[in-house]
Amino acid sequence: MRIACLPDAVRIGLKALAGATLLVAASGCLATRSWVNDQLQPITTQQQHFQTQLSNLHLERRLVLDSTAGPNFAFGSAALSPNAKREIDQFLGDLEGSTPSGSAASDRVFVVAGYTDSVGHEAYNYDLGQKRATSVAGYLVGQKGLDPMQVRVVSYGASKPVADNSTRSGRRKNRRVEILVFQEKIATGS
Asked: 27: how many CB neighbours lie within 10 A of its CB?
């Protein structure tokens, strides 16, 4: 008779253990959500600050690195050509000369946007656009000394063509990176 009771006791014990585990797991999930929210708070605050910052900025200058003046990005490549590096160097030199007196270059935000032609899958093109933008941003920070906090990278992949992707020259123009330089707005009194 005791043997017949043992399975009931085991079953009751397992149910109790399962119930306790479920209770601990549920309370752990609640604690985890709170912990995640606490961890995300600095990122959320930084994102809100960046959006506020962008609303106070205006587009100062723009450089488009595409293949119209030479092969800046080969098909499927994110490598910067010597021609692209020269264009970036010249652009930054012109930008330094245009800094108004009383304004600091550190007030600028550089948005580096990567684009591709429409050949290939959407995910591949997004990654390639990201690699191209990251390559340019790496050059700006690593070789030209820009503050990494001033440089933002974004990929549009093939989603924003500037030319017809059904032609060879159009695809070449769409394989590009744009460097957008934003400067803080200067309030004028009336």
From this structure: 10
